[in-house]
Amino acid sequence: MVETWKSVVGYEGRYEVSDTGLVRSVARSVANTATSSRMLAAVILAPFVHRGGYMVVKLSRSRQKTSHYVHRLVAEAFLGSGEARQEVLHADGDKKNNRLENLSWGSRRDNMRDRHRLGEVAKGERHGMAKLTEDAVRAILSDTRYHHLVAADYGVSRSMISMIKRGKHWRHLAG
To answer: Is residue 101 predicted with pLDDT exceeding 80?
Structure first.
C-alpha cells in the first residue's frame, strides 16, 4: 500500500501528515538574514506521548512552537474538519494508532460509548473509589431488609444502598 501525504491544515508548505499517522516537515528555503537563506531538509518528526496517552508533535510557525495531537492532524487533513465540538474517535481504542482507517469524527457521546464498549472505563470493583465488591452488590440487590440495616452491614450509607437498588450505581449488575 502506498503512503499518502497531505498538507497539515494551517501549516501548508511547512508540514505534511500521512495516512499512516506520520508527520514530516517539508523541504524549504528559510531566510537567515535579509540577504541570505538556507535549505531545511524534510524530516519525519518524532512524536511524544502526551497526557492521556495521545501522540503529539510540535509544529513551529514564526518561531512559535505549538503542540498538536497527531490524530487530529490526520483527521483534519484526510477527513476534513469535523463539525463544532466533534472529537476524533479511535476505532480500536489504541490512542497511538493514528492510521486513517482507525480514525473518524464523532460526538463526545460516541467517544464515551466507544470507551465503554472497549472496557476503558473503570466501573465496579475496578473503580479506584469502590468500597464494595460485585458479590457484595449482588447480595445487596437481593437483600429485602431495611436500607439502614443493609448499609450498616456493608459500611456504606443508606443512600448508597438506595442508589444501588434503584439502578443508579452498579447499574451493570442490576440488569
So the answer is: yes
